[in-house]
Design brief:
heterotrimer; A mainly alpha (226); B mainly alpha (244); C mainly alpha (51); B: 244 residues; mainly alpha; globular; C: 51 residues; 86% helix; rod-shaped
Chain lengths: 226, 244, 51
């Protein structure tokens, strides 16, 4: 009986969601980290909301990036450790598709909650209420692209010692475009300009990521499993 | 098309011999050209209308910048060749490129800063080209870091090759995003060495210096390649012959 | 001659820039050469250990 791609994806998504919700404390950590970072910036810069508003795009995106990097540790690590990843590779199903399913689930568990929480952090940084929709949209799309890009680094560092720091070093330069366009979209939202152009570019990066990143991640995982 | 030459380059002892033979020549010619280009750029070329004598820093900054990118491309191509045709020599070549390219990037950033101070009034400006160079330096460090972190040499080869290719795909995207970002906050308009309407007497030393740097890279690359091949071939018999 | 060193007032940036650029050129050569020497010594040692 041949399993269809859709049911493979459904199985993986459900499995990852179930496993994640068994350890809810682990789910909260990236979110808490993001909130802490968002709090640290005012503490180190200024309590004046008007000045914080200028720095808000930067703070939100750097916080989101750092939190993403923390969360990426969990994307493949546990499955690699207990041999599940190997089973995926040997299963005869498309590893690319399976890793894409895993990455999407990972985003649902880390990036999306972060985007939903971001309005709160944004208001702490003096962002006006009407900009909050744009902030959310930009971070949602950007964090999705970030998960995709990060999956490649996560796959590459599976076999490396002290993978965490290296993962950051590898992923951050590749994430520069996401940062630039995402922060621009956020800034435009804050000052009330249309956020179209940077969002489209962010979308383009996300689409590029969807097509290329699972392929690269699968190749990376295969190299690591040899 | 005779592909024998390509397959010859798949053989470590052949490449080793090639490197040993040709590196000195590349180096000697490079050195000569550098001297001539320096003379042309520092003495013969007239001072620039806008930047006066400061523009002469272009003769060390521009070749470094070009090489930093060219070396990365070489690294990426070698990585692809290594992955597709499973050529050990290609992976060795990629590994040999990395430190050289990273140093070119450092040179670009340093000379850029020194050029920037008289031109912009400050040692650093977040202009698109310097910022992209900085990100390129991070890419080099990521590549070298990944290589160093993986114990198994073959895994290290393949993983870093994959990273190099992903990075290569990303470089134009990164550069474009940096240009976009810079355009948002455009304050300075003086680029480092705007090369509109440069007299030939200014151009030929630059072209010559570029060629010199490329040949110099060839020499250093061949030396490092020899070292890489020695390290990788462990106990192959050809090494015994070569060392005696 | 001193005009040459002054470089129209930009000398104090220009010469360090060239020193840095060509210093790195020399350094790279030296590093590559020492890496080769190192690899040769290691290879010789390996040859000796194997009968």
């Amino acid at each position: 009986m041949k399993t269809s791609s859709l049911s493979v994806a459904r199985l993986i998504v459900l499995r990852d969601l179930r496993l994640a919700f068994r350890k809810p404390s682990q789910l909260i950590q990236p979110l808490m980290f993001f909130m802490i970072v968002a709090t640290l910036f005012p503490l180190t810069l200024t309590p004046e909301l008007s000045r914080l508003r200028d720095a808000a795009p930067g703070v939100l995106w750097v916080g989101a990036l750092l939190s993403s990097l923390l969360a990426l540790e969990f994307l493949f690590r546990e499955d690699a450790d207990d041999g599940t990843l190997e089973q995926f590779a040997l299963s005869g199903q498309s590893l690319t598709w399976m890793l894409f399913a895993k990455t999407c689930t990972h985003w649902l568990l880390t990036g999306l909650p972060l985007a939903l929480f971001a309005p709160i952090a944004a208001m702490l940084l003096g962002v006006p209420a009407q900009a909050v929709g744009g902030v959310l949209a930009a971070l949602a799309l950007g964090s999705f692209a970030m998960s995709l890009v990060g999956a490649i680094g996560a796959g590459l560092t599976l076999g490396a010692r002290r993978g965490g720091v290296l993962l950051s070093l590898l992923t951050l330069p590749l994430a520069v475009p996401i940062l630039v366009f995402g922060a621009d979209a956020t800034q435009r939202a804050i000052i009330g300009d249309p956020i179209g152009p940077p969002m489209y570019l962010l979308g383009a990066i996300a689409v590029l990521g969807i097509t290329l990143s699972p392929l690269a991640a699968a190749a990376a995982v295969r190299i690591g499993l040899e | 098309m005779n592909w024998v030459w390509f397959h010859r380059f798949g053989s470590p002892p052949y490449v080793y011999g090639f490197a040993r033979r040709w590196a000195p020549w590349f180096g000697a010619v490079a050195g000569l050209l550098m001297v001539v280009a320096l003379y042309g750029g520092l003495v013969l070329a007239p001072a620039d209308y806008q930047q006066k004598d400061a523009f002469r820093m272009m003769y060390v900054h521009a070749p470094s910048a070009t090489m930093s990118l060219m070396v990365y491309s070489t690294l990426a191509v070698a990585s692809a060749v290594g992955l597709i045709w499973r050529m050990k020599v290609a992976h060795a070549a990629a590994a040999a490129c990395a430190p050289i390219g990273a140093w070119f990037t450092v040179a670009t950033l340093g000379t850029g800063m020194l050029w920037g101070k008289p031109m912009w009034g400050t040692y650093w400006e977040w202009d698109p080209r310097l910022t992209s160079e900085l990100v390129l330096l991070f890419l080099y460090f990521g590549y070298m870091g990944l290589r160093a972190a993986i114990e198994d040499p073959q895994k290290a080869d393949k993983a870093s090759a994959l990273l190099a290719i992903v990075g290569a795909v990303n470089i134009p995207i990164i550069h474009y995003s940096v240009v976009w970002w810079n355009g948002l906050h455009q304050e300075n308009s003086t680029k480092l060495g705007s090369d509109a309407d440069m007299a030939w007497s200014m151009v030929w030393p630059l072209l010559l210096m570029l060629l010199a740097f490329a040949l110099y890279f060839g020499a250093v690359f061949l030396i490092r390649l020899r070292a890489e091949l020695l390290r990788r071939e462990r106990n192959a018999s050809w090494i015994r012959e070569v060392l005696s | 001659m001193s005009e040459f060193f002054e470089m129209g007032g930009y000398g104090k940036y220009l010469w360090p820039a060239f020193a840095l650029g060509f210093g790195i050129v020399v350094l790279n050569l030296v590093l590559a050469w020492s890496s080769l020497r190192n690899a040769e010594t290691q290879a010789r040692r390996r040859m000796e250990m194997k009968p």
